[in-house]
Amino acid sequence: MAPPRESNDLARQAAELARATAELQVLQRVSSEINSTLDLEEIYEIALRTMDELFEFHHAIILLLEPDGETLTVVASRGYENQAVGGHVRIGTGVIGIVAQRRKMLHVANLGHQRAYAAAQRRQMMKSDRRAELGEAVPVPGLPNAESQFAIPLLMRDELIGVFSIESPVRYGFSEHDRGLVLIVANQIASAVHKARLYEERRRAAEALQVANASLEQRVAERTAALERELRVAQELLSAARSRVEGPLLGDSPEVRALRDAVAREALRSEPLLLSGPTGAGKEAVAHALHRASGRRGAFIFINCAELQTESRKTPLEPMAARSEQRLLASKVELASGGTLFLEAFHELAPGLQAELHALIEAREQPEAREPTGLPTGSLPHDMRVIVATIRDPESFARDGRLLPLAARLVRNVIRVPALVDRREDIPALVEHFIRRHARRLGKIVNRVSSESMARLQAYKWPGNIRELSTVVERALLVSRGTVLEVDEDLLDERLAVGSYRLVSQLGSGGMGEVWLAKHRLLARPAAVKLIRHDPQQRDAHAQLVRRFQREALVTAGLRSPHTVQLYDFGVNDTGSFYYVMEFLQGLDLHRIVTRFGPQPAERVTMLLCQACRSLAEAHDRGLVHRDIKPANLFVTRLGHEYDYLKVLDFGIVKDQPREDATLISAQGILQGTPAFIAPEVMFGASTLDGRADLYSLACTAYWMLTGQLVFGASTPAEMILHHARTVPIPPSHVSELPIPGELDNLLMRCLEKDPSSRPSSALELESELSRVALDQPWTQEKAREWWDRHAPDTLREVQI
Amino acid sequence: MTRLPSEIRPVLDNGIPAVMVTCSADGVPNVTVISQVYYVDEGHAALSFQFFSKTIRNIRENPRACVWLSDIDRLSNWVLQLEFERSETEGAVFDAMDMQIEAIASATGMSGIFKLRAADIYRVLSVEQISQ
């Protein structure tokens, strides 16, 4: 029988062996379980459960380091009444914080004593002069009454992951053996957390990659689509550009064949070339064809000389403007190096710039004879072809006295671009070409043009040439519905279209201007259109007339009196004609009324004169003098139910009192106004011309209305002018067969005074005095309606257009 | 060599201040109270060197010291005869002492105030339990 001591030893050894075996089994299981999962929550659970199984106590906490590297956060805990999960510990604070900071495990076996000692020290310091050194006590997660704490840093390849801490309320709760066990578990935790984190990071990276990949694929798809769109646009632009170049040269007529031959012949030369032809005939396209056939690698540079000229007109006296044009031309010349410099509307190029350009061409051809020029001299463009285009006939171009050296060279080398009307047989080929070009752009499927429409197109005069043909085809395509294109007759006469208005019938014409009844394309509102046809052969007269019309339009647009004709629109149409659109008035002007129906009663004349005064008063207030008041410019119409409504027309020669040079008329040698109704001071070009001149003319008009006679009888304008200047008129009452009140008679005679200061001072004063004239029977609306019904019943009927 | 008995370990840091007696080279004794005696191994104990005190000066002159520990669990006292052996400013003992001091101090708003200058290692010359 074994002695009792040996038996006890054996029992103790057996118990220790059993405990060690159990611990080993626990550790094997934890190792197996913790390494079989990548789920962090599961890892924490296994670790904490293992602590339960290994120790009687079960206060354990797992903290992980935050990305900021300064804080630990509790991710799992067990055994705490107050769940510590989510709590934070700063690195360097408390047992856990110090363990994380030093990356060394720490076992404190007598926490209570340590804390009590520290508290005592703190109280002492609070009483001493070292109080300022004290900081705030920091709460840390854990048991408030813990006596033992064992904290282990969770490290992976020397990198801190977190801290694993166990606590016990028992002093010396952990033996060396216990610490060894905890250390093993802690290492397992660190390894498993590291792996799980790596897996999570990779999973997130893979997801991010997938998202990025999807985004990239989407961006690539969008970019591809955008590039395809850009490519389509570029192809369309290229196609359009090619069409512009090729279009005008299509066809098989003798004219276009000759043109193509000329292009082929001229392309390889470098001599400056002049292209002559009407507007829209395709001169620019011919220039492009020449450039392409020349084999020049440089650019095709376009300059519109009219734009340069416009700029110089804006500031004629400023040398800066000239320098600006020169710089612009110089930059274009540089760009055209090795290519083609194309100048459209060459006839508009200022002589100075012509000379500069000519000097440049000469310098290039004869460098030794080069003269200073404002154009680039440092590097003269090599092999630059100069091509110019003009709508003017080269013959007339040479005769008009502006034949500068460059022009003289150009007229020796001319290609004439034919008008479309001279190559009608090419129209089908051109129509087919434009259908192809526009239909693709407009997304239309059109195979051909109906035979009727083609016949219409071939019969048309084409004043706008190929450009007009292109526009007509485009417009027809816009409204087309089938595969066979129908070209409406309305589209053809674009000369009869101005802005949003279509000309319906001509109301009158004279000189270079015409007046048309027109209707708005959408509103069907009737309107009167004044039109100046663009005639390149009468350039100066046309320009003068356009300026007058522009002035009239601008002046009229600024006037709001209902007795002044209203302006709707003005501009230049496709064929280059200037137009302005005004309200369409139905009725008769005073000239026609008197001519057709004889002198008018004083009551009616007085009423009409008052209305004219209201219109003139506004103009005069704005400093404008009409200068052409006469019966033909005073129009009597109906406005709604109001009869005998007077409108003042034609502010075309209006004079701007304060700004315009008073000597303009005499300087130009042109007398503007109508001699029978002109005031003396207008004839003499008085510097103080004002609205009283219009009152004189208005009195002349009244004289005509009351008497059917002019104030003065004369066989020539000169004689008439002399009378206005010298002769005292016979009072209207002496001439009229109808009674004229004395007050009216006297008032008109005052208006006809040679000296403006003897006339009423203003239109408003005249109106006021007219309104005070005692009349036997006032001119009422009933009388006016009766007059129109009896004398001109159809005149005021609303026009159907 | 005298060994520290295992039952003395809880007494070393039971929270009851110990009494330490040192003596200068000229024989003048000094009695002071210390908060804790650290257990190093069976033959050694460690005392924290935080302040330049009379005790430290005496130990530098005369390495012998006597520590009186109160064991309230057994209602007895322990008397340790010690001899200063060395000062450690690094190593496991120093680290453990330093981390404990800083861990507690940092949580009570006294971080950096109790700076451990060295861990003074004493060899145990004798251990005597005296019943009260």
Descriptive report:
The complex is a heterodimer of chains A (801) and B (132). Chain A is of the alpha+beta class and 801 residues long. Chain A folds into five domains: 17-123 and 140-202, GAF domain (Beta-Lactamase), CATH 3.30.450; 250-418, 3-Layer(aba) Sandwich (Rossmann fold); 421-492, Helicase, Ruva Protein, domain 3, CATH 1.10.8; 496-584, Phosphorylase Kinase, domain 1; 585-801, Transferase(Phosphotransferase) domain 1 (Transferase(Phosphotransferase), domain 1). Helices cover 48% and strands 16% of the residues of chain A. Chain A has 27 helices and 24 strands. Chain A has a six-stranded antiparallel β-sheet with strand order 3-2-1-6-5-4, with helices on both faces. In chain A, strands 14-15-16-17-19-18 form a six-stranded antiparallel β-sheet, with helices on one face. A five-stranded parallel β-sheet of chain A has the order 8-9-10-7-11, sandwiched between helices. In chain A, helix 2 runs antiparallel to helix 5 (176-246), helix 5 (176-246) runs antiparallel to helix 13 and helix 19 runs antiparallel to helix 26. The longest helix of chain A has 71 residues, at 176-246. Chain A is elongated. Mean pLDDT of chain A is 81; it is low at 310-321 and 657-670. With 132 residues, chain B is an alpha+beta fold. Chain B has one domain: Electron Transport, Fmn-binding Protein, Chain A (Pnp Oxidase, Chain A, Roll), CATH 2.30.110.10. In chain B, 21% of the residues lie in helices and 43% in strands. A seven-stranded antiparallel β-sheet of chain B has the order 2-1-5-6-7-4-3. In chain B, strand 1 and strand 2 (29-34) form a beta hairpin. The longest helix of chain B has 16 residues, at 92-107. The two termini of chain B are 27 Å apart. The A-B interface holds A 92-95, 97-99, 102, 104, 106-119, 121-122, 125, 130, 133-138, 140, 171-172 and B 9-10, 13-15, 35-36, 95-96, 99-100, 102-111, 113-114.
